[in-house]
Amino acid sequence: MPMDPNGPRGVLTLLCLTCGNRKYYDDTPPNRVKCEKCGNTVFRNFFSPTEADEATIEQLEETRRQIALDDVSPDTTPDDISELNNP
Question: What is the pTM of this model?
Answer without folding.
Answer: 0.52
